[in-house]
C-alpha cells in the first residue's frame, strides 16, 4: 500500500488534487488545517470524501468547531466559513469532530503541531498537538519541540515559517515537518511513506501573508 501524508492544505484544493494525481496513493493522510484561509474548502472536503482520507485535527480545524459551538462569537472569519460550509458542504464541519489529534502512517506518528518530547501521545496535551512550536511554552527563547524529541518517527505540519523540516536518525528520516506554506504562495508538500521521499507542487498563488 502506498501512503501519502500531506502538509497543511488550507483550502488549496487544486494543489491537493494535483499532488494526489501525481502520486496516486492508496491511502491519503492530511496533517490538519484543511479548510481555512484558501479559496476552495468545499473542494478539499470533496477530495477527503472521495479518497476516504484520514485527517488529524489542526488548530484551525478546532477554531471552526469552537466558532460553530458559539465559543468564538467575534471571529467573523471562522463564522463566515462555517456558514459557507454548512450551506455548500453540510458534512464538512461534523467530520472534524471525528478527526483525532494524532494518527499513524506506516512507521510514523502523525500530528498537526507537536508531540511530547518522549513521543508518547498519551503524555501530549491537546494544546501541544494543536498549536505548540517551541517546548515547553512557545516562548521565543524556547527550543523548537523537535530539537528535544526522543520518540518514534513523526510527521507534523503547522509551521510554515520553518518550511520543510527533516531530521534523520541512524540514516533514516525521523522528524518531518511538511508545512511548506501553500496558501501563502509556497508549495504543497507530501511524504510518500513507503518510498521515504517528499513530493511537492507549487501554489497557484498566495492567498494571504504568512503569519508572524
What does this structure look like?
It is a single chain. This protein starts with a strand and ends in a 10-residue tail after the last strand. With 212 residues, the chain is of the alpha/beta class. It has helices at 13-23, 41-51, 59-68, 76-88, 92-97, 126-131, and strands spanning 3-6, 27-30, 54-55, 102-105, 108-111, 154-156, 165-169, 172-177, 187-192, 197-202. Helix content is 27%, strand content 21%. α1 runs parallel beside α2 and α3 (59-68) crosses α4. The strands form 2 sheets. The protein has a 5-stranded mixed β-sheet with strand order 3-2-1-9-10, with helices on one face.
Quickly describe the structure:
This protein is of the alpha/beta class and 212 residues long. The chain contains 6 helices and 10 strands, in the order E-H-E-H-E-H-H-H-E-E-H-E-E-E-E-E.
